[in-house]
Amino acid sequence: MPFFTLFLIALGLSFDTFAVSVSSGIARNKIVFWEAIQIASVLAFFQALMPLIGWLGGISIKNYIEPIDHWIALALLSIIGIKMIIESFKEVENRKFDPLKPKVMLSMAIATSIDALAVGISFAITQVNILLAFVTIGFVTFIVSMLGMLFGKKIGGKLGQRMEILGGIILIAIGVKIVLEHLGILP
After folding, report:
1. What span, in angstroms and rounded, lies between the C-alpha atoms of 136 and 90?
2. Dihedrals phi, psi of 75, to nearest 5 degrees
3. Where are the domains of the chain?
4. How confident is the model over 53-98, as pLDDT tens digits?
5. Spatial separation of the C-alpha atoms in residues 57 and 134, rounded to whole Å
6. Pick from 51, 54, 114: which is nearest to 84 by CA?
7. If 0-12 CB within 10 Å is exposed, 13-18 middle and 19+ buried, where does residue 91 land?
């Protein structure tokens, strides 16, 4: 898989994290740099770890599903993308939460990275360099999280929904691209 495609997947996966980070910036509008780094690091670690776990599981079943792997990748990425788009339209409860509490931080990290587990399975069947994927997804998520908290402090939650929709569309488009490449329509 080309690096640019991997980067787009990382970007698409990070939009849930962006929305959570915006919320964190809103909830703690006086968040300091080191607190933001702590939150972003936890979110990035889990976002990078989940595809690795999915990849490990996917490797064990790769030989059985290789003839239809491109369709599975499309299905997984599309399901995640559609879920992200649907979730973006749900009402956000205006409740006070402290994103620096370990329990809250861990909950946010797991909730925003579950989708990445399925992406990891698709990585196993599309032969992705998993170390590069781990680093890329972690780095992109860290940067997006930091930007999300900054936006949350500065402009509020107005962009959160749009970013989740864009993330969903990117994941679906990547799934379509994988199928088109497999069918020989795209190089």
Report:
1. 29
2. -65, -50
3. 3-90+97-182
4. 999 988 777 677 767 877 877 887 788 778 767 877 776 554 455 7
5. 15
6. 114
7. exposed
Using a cut of 0.85, tell me whether the model's pTM lies above it.
Answer: no
Provide the CA 86 distance to its chain's centre, in angstroms.
Answer: 15
Closest by alpha carbon to 80, among 43, 116, 127, 51?
Answer: 116
Instruction: Tell me 92's DSSP state.
Output: P
64: exposed, middle or buried (Cβ count in 10 Å: 0-12, 13-18, 19+): exposed
Q: Is the sign of the CA dihedral 172, 173, 175, 180 positive or negative?
A: positive
| Token pair listed for 160 | 């959160």
What is the phi-psi region of residue 156: left when phi exceeds 0, alpha when psi lies from -120 to 50, beta otherwise?
Answer: left
The H-or-E segment that residue 17 falls in is helix 3-27
Name the 3-class secondary structure at 80. helix
Q: Please give the structure tokens belonging to residue 101.
A: 């509490």
